Every structure is written in structure tokens, then in C-alpha cells.
Amino acid sequence: MRENRQITIYKQIEGLVYILFISTIVTVVADTCFKRDFSGIDLKYAKFNKNCVAVELRGIDELEGIYCVHPNTTLFTFFNDLDLCKDWPCDLNVLTFSLRDGTLISLENGQVMIGEMSATKKLALGIPLDINNVSYQDLILVPGIKEVTAKRIIEMREKKGKFSSMSELLAIRGIKEKRLADIKRYLQIREP
Question: Is 103 exposed, middle or buried (0-12, 13-18, 19+ CB in 10 A)?
Fold first, then answer.
């Protein structure tokens, strides 16, 4: 009886080792074969927080990516930190404005072009979209906003001009206090 119990315990241990071995192999194969590609969003400084401004740089392969800079960092300071002033014009008069969340800096054909990151990148980084400039396609990316609501928001904006307060969205059928509170995390009224 005692021997049967020991044999059973050894077989259970053997089975457990076999399961752990197979699980390890499956995990390694899955990590290798199905690894997610985040090359489109190369975070040069991944600790994004409220004291960080996310800025995307395009145009120089080895420097392309999304950077976290201190609030009130100017384009001149950003260029200096990346040692770009030797290759790009760093006129202090042009580069004195402060970078803000979601800024896209493109370096093309000897020119510096300033724009906005895509809505998907902004949302992924936790940067709210500007309700006064967001497109219909970008609005439907926001959790809690479906096609009909997005259409109503755009129609209201076109009718009245720019929103001056997020609470104005309460006039749209389907948006109540709770829903407004939920979508405020993803939308804002950005100062010019």
C-alpha cells in the first residue's frame, strides 16, 4: 500500500514537471513568434507622467521616436539636447515656443515642420484630444463615443463654433453626467 502511494506521488510529480516543461516551451514559442511590434511608437523615455510632455520626432532615423521632455521645454532646447543644431537651423527667434503634449516635429528637406501626433498615439499615451479640432474618425476612437454621438458632437461644433466648456456636451442627446465624466479623460478644450 505504501509503495503504491509513493509510485502515485512520483507519477504526479513527473506529470507536473512535464506540464511545466511544455508550458515553458509554449511560452517561449509564443513570445518569439507572436511578439507585438511596437516599433511604430519608439519611446525614448518611457516614464510618462503628469510632469512630462510627450513629443514625437520624425525625419532622422536614429532619433525618430516619442520623447518625454519637461514642461516648458522649447524647441531650441529640445534640438540642443539632441545635438541637432549643427545640422538644422537653430534660430532662437523661431524656436522659442514651448513644446506641448502631442507635438509632432518633422524634419524634412531642410525644414522643421510642427504638427500634432496622430489621435491613436495621443490616446495610447493618455493625451486628451482637443474637442474643437478632433475629426469624426478620431472621436469614434474615444471609449464611450460611438458613431451617432460622434456625429452629434461634430454637428454641434459646426453649428455653434468652438466649444468653450466640456459641459456643453450635456446638450447632446445621449450624453449625461456620468458619460461626460468618462469621456473627459480623453477629450479637452486646448488653449490656442
Answer: buried
